[in-house]
Specification:
3-stranded antiparallel beta sheet, alpha+beta, 274 residues, single chain
Length: 274
Amino acid sequence: MSWLTSTLEHCRKFRSILPSILPSILPVFFACFYGISTNVMAAEQYPCKSDSDDLMDRWAGIEKMDPNYPVKRILGPYRFEIPFGYMTGRPTPEQVNCYPVRKRIEFAFWMPDLRAPKDDTWGKSDFRPQEPGRDAPGPQDYIVEVPGVMFIDTKAGKSESPSVRFWNSLSMLDEAFGFEQKYGLLRVLPGKNPNVYDDYSDLSQEDYKIILNCSRPEDHRLNPLCQAYLYFTDLQLETVVRFPADALPEWRKIKDGVRTLAERWIVKGKPDQN
């Protein structure tokens, strides 16, 4: 019975100190409780279950979703809460809370105000759609697509891709080539080498690395675009970013917009920089 005597003694000691520690532990207890309660309530609003077999039912469900509903996604050490209206390839209410742990997340937004698109932009090539109730987009108004945000675990030996892509692209040039500065970026002048895109990069910054492949004006493409590979060093997040080619001079604003939204939606987690 010695174990019983010992247990009772511990209980008496805990009861004696409880009044003194209660003020300090209650805030922590309630913070944890309400945090868990909020997550549970969100999941209960749209519990994970099988989709309807009727495509119209699926479409109707997506249309009824609150664009501000926080969709939880886990990416590496980060937990994101992304407003539903920013998502691309928008899930149905039945699937929105399924499989929160992801290898990548996707979203889109308008420049310059960073608002969410009215409609899902997945699979669409128009960067300046006319949205109901809004003026026709001008030259400074366009959608930025982010079809991939990935966590790069450098401690596991992984590396960012802009630097790798830059050197790989140069290694494919057999003839003489050069460089010029344009829009604050290093542009590759391919010379007599065949090239499909105009290549730009900036690998000199401490807080980010970027390389861009842009449609050439002489190709007269229907929807000319730039695709950027952008790595945020401190966050260890790499993003794929697409925007209209005529917005290239504003690439810094686009970069800042991507980071602003990503940081706005992060609710937990940051890589250990030690």
